[in-house]
Hints:
- It is a single chain.
- The chain has about 300 residues and is an all-alpha fold.
- The protein has one domain (about 1-305): Na+/H+ antiporter like fold (Up-down Bundle).
- It is built from 15 helices and no strands.
- The chain has helices at about 1-25, 30-55, 65-90, 100-105, 110-120, 125-150, 160-165, 165-180, 185-210, 215-220, 225-245, 250-265, 270-275, 280-295, 295-305.
- Helix 11 runs antiparallel to helix 12.
- The longest helix has 27 residues, at about 65-90.
Amino acid sequence: MAITIVFTQLCVLMTFLLLGFFTKKKGYIHDIGVKDLSWIVINIGNPCQILSSVLNTDVVSDKGPIIEMFIVSILTYGTLMVIGLFMGVLVRAPKHERKVYNMMTVFGNLGFVGLPLVQAVYGAGAVLYVVDFILVYNILMFSYGTFVLRPEDGEKNSGLLKNLMNPGFIASIVTIIFFFFDIRLPAYFQSVTLYGGEIVVALAIFTIGANLADLKMKEVVNDPHVWSFIVIRQMILPVCFLLVLKLFIHDTVLLGTYAVVLSVPVGNVVSMVANKNGLDVRTITKGTVLTTVLSVLTITFVTFFV
């Protein structure tokens, strides 16, 4: 069942990726247009998607397991951030690409692959576990992530506080407050965030496909650094993390959710932020495409250890 769901999600993803690829290849959209789409996704779509994760779900009375998973998510991402600092060295990537491997190590595709997969396999109750990870993910992406992927010409002058003041990070903080204090807004705001968040998947994958049009396919599959990354990040690390968690938690739903969250492919938001800031996204695009295509195998491999 899990394989079928992953395969379906990948087919949808690949459809929009191919649309972006051929649209750019045929010259119907140009570099400036791709950058503008990235801005829309980062500054409008993602904040709406973040807020919608709480505004369009029911109030949870027992927050014990949710808080427990929230702590696990903080520890997990903290560890991934440390490992990410050395991932570029481990895969012997060129020095200028190491911060890219750092980001690819930390940020997976939770929203498009992780969330629907967990919901379909483990039910709606497990979705809140994923939301825990999404909240931590977004806080880090729009603070640590935007700081690491800041524009090259702003490396000396751009401060952490300035990078924090963006729509995604602010939306993440508001979402946490709404969740723990059971705050709900009128239906109008629920609809706005729901519809605004729904643009993310199509546009994000579309822009990745457009960026792929600038690469030769031989470059995508012939990069040994990316293949080393896939083995370490998508297979070895998730299994190690899962085996450690099994020493403390024995709930199969929670463990299964954790396995999926850890083994999702590279998140398209990394490419969006890098592209918006005018950075080279070729390595990110290669990592996103290959980890997505291979996720049917890698996710299945990791969940075997639940």
